[in-house]
Amino acid sequence: AMDYRPMWRDLGLNLDNHDALLSVLGKLYGDTFLTQPNRPAGTAYLDFVMSEVHGLRIQELVEGKKRGRKVVGTYCTFVPEELVLAVDAVMVGLCAGADFATEAVERYLPRNLCALIKSTFGFKLGGVCPYLESSDLVVGENTCDGKKKAWEVFRGIVPNLHVMDLPQMKHGEGRALLKAEYLRFMETLERLTGNRVTVESLAKAIDVVNAKRQAVHRLSALRAADPAPISGLDSLLVNQIFFYEDPVRFTAQINALCEELEARVRTGAGVAGKGAPRILVSGCPMAVPNWKIPALVETSGAVIVAEESCVGERGTRNLVPRTGATVEEMVDHLVDRYLRIDCAIYTPNPDRLAHVKEMARAYRVDGVLLYGLQFCTPYAVEALGIEQVLEGEGIPALRIETDYSQEDVGQLKTRIQAFIERI
Ligand code: BJ8
Fold this sequence. Notes:
Blueprint: H1 5-11, H2 15-33, H3 44-51, H4 56-66, E1 71-74, H5 81-86, E2 90-93, H6 102-105, H7 115-125, H8 130-134, E3 137-141, H9 145-154, E4 161-164, H10 172-193, H11 199-222, H12 232-241, H13 247-267, E5 278-283, H14 292-298, E6 303-308, H15 313-316, H16 327-339, H17 350-362, E7 367-373, H18 377-392, E8 397-402, H19 409-422
The structure holds Double cubane cluster (BJ8).
Double cubane cluster is lined by residues 76-78, 114, 116-117, 143-144, 146-147, 284-285, 310, 341, 343, 345, 373, 376, 378-379.
């Protein structure tokens, strides 16, 4: 194997911490993914990407940087990748799915903040994320109170931070704010790269990102089959890789995987037996390596067939029309598309409930697992109402609140198993 240590050192990683993270990650991946029964052969691509997650992909970014190609790191699905690609930069999602450097984090942030935000700080303070250290620009967004306030502190340790304001309501003024913020972001990108967004470069970028979304739509549609041709764990991984893999390669590989899955559906082959309980997971995003809940569900005899999540269908549905005579008209299309993301920070947010119900039907689910991170107010409040509506319509629902620790695994397993028996 390649020795990436010089590259990691040059990026400023803390090599001891980083070794520790990689060994935990490698073991967790092996235990969680490689033990699954009946995996499609095309998942070898996912294994490869994960095995090189801090290796080959970082090397590509570093080589691109030597040729002047900037890297933009992001934390939210509201950041339009189209604009980043239109200035010939690369966008990477900065995962925050594991606790790290907790003591150091708690010198900056209160304990009772969601694990996702604390993890964001932990990866920085621990010096373990080569994506963050490769980023020429980091984008934070004003979503929930936790994130919004955390950026004020984060700026002290990540000075190249661009904070994007987001509306809380989607009426006319909310839309105007999002558009103004996208135009301001575009200027920042143009300044960073020295490249202009043009009608041609933006049209090309829109095509690349639409194609990537269409590949995951194709995958999602195949999961409606019974038996499901691919596990929820592997599908979640596809949605996680979506954020940092090269978009064109990702699209080609996921389409190839879909071809294999189409053959599986034709012959009735699947990962679990026909009639296995089918679960929709809905709620907070699950970043790498947060595989805790799907692993518990799928080792309990059920199969996850869809995710109503920003690392899932909430983040990837809806394409952007590539028409428009001017850059501004095209930015309008972007704003319209992104404004439809039904994140729980919006008020009111009726679209999300409608989407959960629509997904429950489309993927023929037997039950919905409402997943929330502890201390996440927006998703916790919505979960109660959604649970009541679903149960009222005869769709069983289970609310789960957890964090990134393994302490509650036994208790969660008991509750998840009881739920699977009930549905
Ligand atoms: S568009 S879901 S990616 S904000 S879990 S940090 S809400 S306290 S992540 Fe999100 Fe963008 Fe919305 Fe999607 Fe706050 Fe909750 Fe933590 Fe959260």
